Predict the structure.
Amino acid sequence: MKSLCFSGCSITWGSELENPEEDRYSRIVSNHYGVIDNNISLRGVSKDDIVRRTIKYIDKNPVDIIIMQFTYVSRYQWISGKGKLYDWTPSIRNAEMFKDTPRKEYYKHTYTNHNGIENAWKNIFLFDRYCKSKNQKYVPLINNHHAHFYEQDCNWKKLCKCQVPTVLSIQKDHPSVEEHKTIADQVVRRIDELTV
Amino acid sequence: MNLLFSGCSITYGDELQNKFMERFSKLVSDHFAARHSNLSECGISNDNIVRRTIDRIDKIPPDLIIMQFTVHQRIEWWSEDGKPHGFTPQRIKDETQRTYYRDVYTDTQGAENLWKNMFLFDCYCKEKGLKYIPLVADHFDLIIKHPDKVFEKGIGDWRRLCEDIPYTFLNQTCLGTSEEFPENYAQGVRGGHPTALGHRSIADKIIKLIDAI
């Protein structure tokens, strides 16, 4: 193993850890394989954005295996007329951050859970076929807080026919140090399965 | 050879007197003495075109796909009961659509959605080893006259990721503008559907593209 890339939201970034760069699961997994912790995650990012930025990154920086953590189905990437990207979430903090965008109208009038679920699986489909078309290995992850959304049937899920994402067990919003160790063990097992 | 044609009203042959005989899918298939299916539907979005085409290919794989992407403003939206709805700014049906186009939609968002769908379909075909011909018919006159607004000077990563995909703009390549070539457009309408002559012109272009691969 020469290189890994970890992509996701605040869970993979290591939010709420005292020393995220030391204690997050990406560092533990990277230490296990003796590679650098190549973590491109962003806090508050949408699934649209995770897929876009990971493909953009991998196109220029090939790696052996990508660890891809898909986030909440309710998050949405909006692009302004001038091309600026905004990651909307239903949170109060996000509402304050993006009060000058039509975020409020989106969640009030346009967003539905089913729309979020279809969009989530479309992003998974896209990333899966991108990786397969490039012979790129990857490990998909989702967290337990929104796993029930991913478990629902939808049209893009039926088309997907790809590997089932590993569900991460997290008590609160973000994993503790101990939970990051557990996640690291899960990820190592998945990587070992891929590299056998 | 089995050909699969997918797209919106352009590929469907809307406004032709005898669409089953005059549309370009029939002309191209006749040229190659090939069997063909035409999955197209009027007014649908790129989201829907890509989804239904993948669904069809998974069930009945063709030898070659002619994939026509459409107006970038359209989207597929899912209501809470799991049903798909086509949004198009020319036919706003309810308050949800009105709010979406009035408050949320931007042309950059629409254009990026077109490119994202194209990228997705390209990855899908590459993974399956399928050959396809990508066509773009973003056929409203504003876009035909000023493609720079959405395409040439467009902003966005999905557009850049599609730079190596050899797509063909149907209007600019085969039909011209409705002012210069009114005979190519049904009733000479600005940005309207192709006439039988327009379909012949599109068919000739596709035949050349198929010959090239």
Summary: Chain A touches chain B at residues 52-53, 55-56, 59, 78-83, 102, 105-106, 109-110, 112-115, 117-118, 122, 125-126, 129-130, 132-133, 153-156, 159 (CB under 8 Å).
